[in-house]
C-alpha cells in the first residue's frame, strides 16, 4: 500500500471494523473486513454497505450544460429527464474509452458526472478542455463529497429505516437509474437507485463532514436486515458475476464501445457533433474484429486477467477478468476474443499457466437477480 495514497473520510470506521486495506486508484480502500466470500453472499442474500468515496463527482452546470455534455460524451444527455441518470462513455478523438461514467440530471441546467476513482482528475480536466466555447461551468467536487452504497435485496428496507416516514412512498417508487434529494439519518443526501453488484440497491452522495454519521447510522439500523460492511474484493466478484465492465480491465483508451458490447450507449442519432463521432459512427455499421464475451469454465480452475484464450491455431484473445463465482459455484471470466470465436456456445481454451483448460462462450450477465417474491 502506497504511503502516498489518500484516505476517505471513513478510514477510521474501516479500521475499527477490522478492514484490511489495498491501494486502489491512489486510495487506501478496504479490501475486506472478515471474509470476502461472506461479504459477497451477504450482498446476494441481504445487504452490504460499501464506501465508494474514492469515486469522482463533477458538477456541470450552466445554460448550455446539456449541449456541452452531448458534445463531450457519446450519449444523448439532452433528452435525459430531471431526476434520472444515464450510463455513458467519455471517448477520445480516436474512439477509445477514456472512462465510463454515470451522469445524473439534477435540474434543467445542472448535471452530476461520476467518473471512476483513478480517472476522476483526468475526466475533470478533459471536461474543462471540452467546455471551451460553451456557456457552462465544470466544478470538481470530488474532494468534498463522499459516496456510500447499500446493495442487496434488503437495501430498500435499510434505506427506509434511515429516511423520514414522509419520504417512504417516494423511495419505494424510485425506478432504476433515478434519484432523489432528501434526508437520511437527518442528513442531506442525493439518493440514487444505481449500483455495481447486479442487485437492487442505492448509492448515496453526501458531504464529507456527514459521511461518518451516515455510515454509523446505516450499520446500526441495518443490523436487523443483515447489513454488513463490504470491501472491494466482494465488489469485484459481484460486478463480474453481473457482467459489468471494470475500467482498466475491460475498458481503456485502446478499446472502442462496440467491441466492448457498449455500442448502444453511442448515440449517432443525436444531431450534435461529439468527440470521437467521426471514428465511432462508421464503426457502428461494421462488425468488430474482436468482442468482449463471457466464458464459463468446464473445470474448477479460474482464468485470470492477462491469460491467453487459445483456439486450434493459437491465441485468439485475452482474459480481462476472471475468478471462481461464489454464487454460481464455477469459474467465470470476461475476455476479448476474435469475432469468429465470439458466438455463444463456442468452445475455446484458456492457457492457465502452461495448461490449456476448456471454457465455453456464454451469455452475460452470468448472474441475474430474481424478482422480489420469486422462490430462491
UniProtKB/TrEMBL annotation:
Top EC class, one word: transferase
Annotated keywords: Aminotransferase, Methyltransferase, Transferase
GO CC terms of this entry: cytosol; glycine cleavage complex
InterPro entries, alphabetized: GcvT, GcvT/YgfZ/DmdA, GcvT/YgfZ_C, GcvT_bac, GcvT_C, GCVT_N, TrmE/GcvT-like
Any single GO BP term: methylation
Domain Aminomethyltransferase C-terminal residues, every copy: 290-367
EC number: 2.1.2.10
Reactions the enzyme catalyzes: N(6)-[(R)-S(8)-aminomethyldihydrolipoyl]-L-lysyl-[protein] + (6S)-5,6,7,8-tetrahydrofolate = N(6)-[(R)-dihydrolipoyl]-L-lysyl-[protein] + (6R)-5,10-methylene-5,6,7,8-tetrahydrofolate + NH4(+)
Record keyword Nucleotidyltransferase present: no
Record keyword Transferase present: yes
A Pfam family recorded for this sequence: GCV_T
GO MF annotation terms: aminomethyltransferase activity; methyltransferase activity; transaminase activity
Binding site residues for substrate: 203
Stored SUPFAM superfamilies: Aminomethyltransferase beta-barrel domain, Folate-binding domain
Family under the similarity heading: Belongs to the GcvT family.
HAMAP family (alphabetical): GcvT
Quaternary context: The glycine cleavage system is composed of four proteins: P, T, L and H.
Annotated function: The glycine cleavage system catalyzes the degradation of glycine.
Protein's UniProt name: Aminomethyltransferase
Record lineage: Bacteria, Bacillati, Actinomycetota, Actinomycetes, Micrococcales
Underlying gene: gcvT
Amino acid at each position: 500500500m502506497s504511503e502516498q495514497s489518500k484516505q476517505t473520510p471513513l478510514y477510521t470506521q474501516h479500521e475499527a471494523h477490522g478492514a484490511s486495506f489495498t491501494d486502489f486508484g491512489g486510495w487506501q480502500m478496504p479490501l475486506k473486513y472478515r471474509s470476502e466470500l461472506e461479504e459477497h453472499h451477504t450482498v446476494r442474500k441481504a445487504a452490504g454497505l460499501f464506501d465508494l468515496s474514492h469515486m469522482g463527482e463533477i458538477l456541470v452546470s450552466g445554460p448550455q450544460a446539456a449541449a456541452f455534455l452531448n458534445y463531450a460524451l457519446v450519449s444523448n444527455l439532452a433528452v435525459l429527464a430531471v431526476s434520472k441518470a444515464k450510463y455513458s462513455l467519455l471517448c477520445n478523438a480516436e474512439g477509445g474509452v477514456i472512462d465510463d461514467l454515470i451522469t445524473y440530471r439534477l435540474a434543467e441546467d445542472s448535471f452530476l458526472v461520476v467518473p471512476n476513482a483513478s480517472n476522476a482528475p483526468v475526466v475533470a480536466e478533459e471536461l474543462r478542455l471540452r467546455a471551451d466555447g460553451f456557456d457552462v461551468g465544470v466544478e470538481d467536487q470530488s474532494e468534498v463529497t463522499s459516496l456510500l452504497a447499500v446493495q442487496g435485496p434488503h437495501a430498500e428496507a435499510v434505506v427506509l429505516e434511515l429516511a423520514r416516514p414522509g419520504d417512504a412512498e417516494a423511495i419505494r417508487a424510485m425506478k432504476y437509474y433515478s434519484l432523489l434529494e432528501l434526508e437520511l439519518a437527518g442528513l442531506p443526501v442525493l439518493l440514487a437507485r444505481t449500483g455495481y453488484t447486479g442487485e437492487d440497491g442505492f448509492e448515496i452522495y453526501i458531504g464529507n463532514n456527514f459521511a461518518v454519521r451516515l455510515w454509523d447510522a446505516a450499520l446500526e439500523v441495518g443490523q436487523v436486515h443483515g447489513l454488513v460492511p463490504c470491501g472491494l474484493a466482494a465488489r469485484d466478484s459481484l460486478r463480474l458475476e453481473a457482467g459489468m465492465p471494470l475500467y482498466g480491465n475491460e475498458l481503456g483508451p485502446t478499446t472502442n464501445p462496440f467491441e466492448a458490447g457498449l455500442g448502444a450507449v453511442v448515440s449517432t442519432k443525436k444531431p450534435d457533433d461529439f468527440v470521437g463521432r467521426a471514428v465511432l459512427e462508421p464503426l457502428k455499421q461494421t462488425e468488430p474484429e474482436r468482442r468482449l464475451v463471457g466464458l464459463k469454465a468446464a473445470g474448477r480452475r479460474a482464468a485470470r486477467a492477462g491469460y491467453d484464450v487459445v483456439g486450434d491455431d493459437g491465441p485468439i484473445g485475452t482474459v480481462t477478468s476472471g475468478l471462481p463465482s461464489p454464487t454460481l459455484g464455477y469459474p467465470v471470466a470476461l475476455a476479448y476474443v476474435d469475432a469468429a470465436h465470439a458466438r455463444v456456445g463456442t468452445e475455446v481454451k484458456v492457457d492457465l499457466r502452461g495448461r490449456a483448460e476448456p471454457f465455453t462462450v456464454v451469455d452475460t450477465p452470468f448472474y441475474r437477480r430474481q424478482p422480489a417474491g420469486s422462490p430462491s
